[in-house]
């Protein structure tokens, strides 16, 4: 029987591969119809109807546009980043991803998924609470270097940070359900004998982890 984390990974992967398949179908369709599209554009240009040609190209571009992006070579992380990126765009949150890792980094998929997804969920939720949408930002950096996996995520914030006995607490109403995100992150880092640093200012929250491989 699969755990909740394993099910979540499968959902991310399924969504990712469904989008890839859809992209491939669109590409095949575009290739099949390309001659007809070029003939239409050529006719517009031959008649000096540049505005119509431009509009046709714009509509053609929109038809085959996709939100799916290749952020990194690791398929699981890429699936997660794409899912969260789409959600961020819906809430006017700018995302900056600098990821340099492949599929074999020495951390099991469930732990990696939990680490990335939990921190991104927290960052998204905090950024959504920033009233000025022009200041909603999330940056993620991850790489394997000199035998370590380093991961840093920063987000703008305007929420209240509650601390109890030196530990950050959730400020959500459903605290029993939502209080495990940061704990899960710390548990994963500790399991791999890594380190985690949490820092914040009035406007920014940052989580940095370093895990030996």
UniProtKB/TrEMBL annotation:
The segment(s) forming the Sensor histidine kinase NatK-like C-terminal domain are 110-212
- GO MF annotations, alphabetized: identical protein binding
- Coiled-coil regions listed in the entry: none
Where is each SpoOB alpha-helical domain found?
15-70
Under the heading CDD domains, the entry gives:
HATPase_AgrC-ComD-like (cd16935)
InterPro entries xrefs: HATPase_C_sf, NatK-like_C, SPOB_a
Pfam families per UniProt: HATPase_c_5 (PF14501), SPOB_a (PF14689)
Give the matching PANTHER family.
TWO-COMPONENT SENSOR HISTIDINE KINASE (PTHR40448:SF1)
Name under which the protein is recorded:
Sensor histidine kinase NatK C-terminal domain-containing protein
Q: Which organism is it from?
A: Anaeromicropila herbilytica
């Amino acid at each position: 029987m699969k755990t909740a984390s394993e099910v979540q990974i499968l959902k991310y992967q399924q969504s990712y591969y469904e989008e890839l398949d859809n992209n491939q179908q669109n590409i095949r369709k575009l290739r099949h119809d390309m001659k007809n599209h070029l003939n239409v554009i050529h006719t517009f240009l031959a008649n000096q109807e540049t505005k119509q040609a431009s509009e046709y190209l714009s509509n053609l571009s929109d038809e085959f546009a996709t939100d799916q992006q290749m952020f990194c070579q690791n398929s699981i992380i890429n699936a997660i980043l794409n899912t969260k990126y789409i959600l961020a765009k819906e809430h006017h949150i700018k995302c900056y991803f600098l990821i340099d890792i492949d599929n074999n980094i020495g951390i099991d998929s469930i732990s990696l998924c939990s680490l990335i997804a939990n921190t991104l969920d927290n960052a998204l939720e905090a950024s959504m609470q920033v009233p000025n949408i022009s200041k909603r930002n999330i940056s993620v950096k991850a790489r394997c270097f000199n035998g370590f996996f380093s991961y840093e995520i920063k987000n703008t914030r305007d929420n209240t940070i509650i601390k109890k006995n030196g530990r950050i607490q959730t400020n959500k109403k459903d605290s029993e359900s939502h209080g495990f995100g940061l704990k899960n992150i710390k548990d994963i880092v500790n399991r791999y004998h890594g380190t985690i640093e949490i820092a914040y200012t009035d406007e920014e929250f940052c989580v940095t982890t370093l895990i030996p491989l």
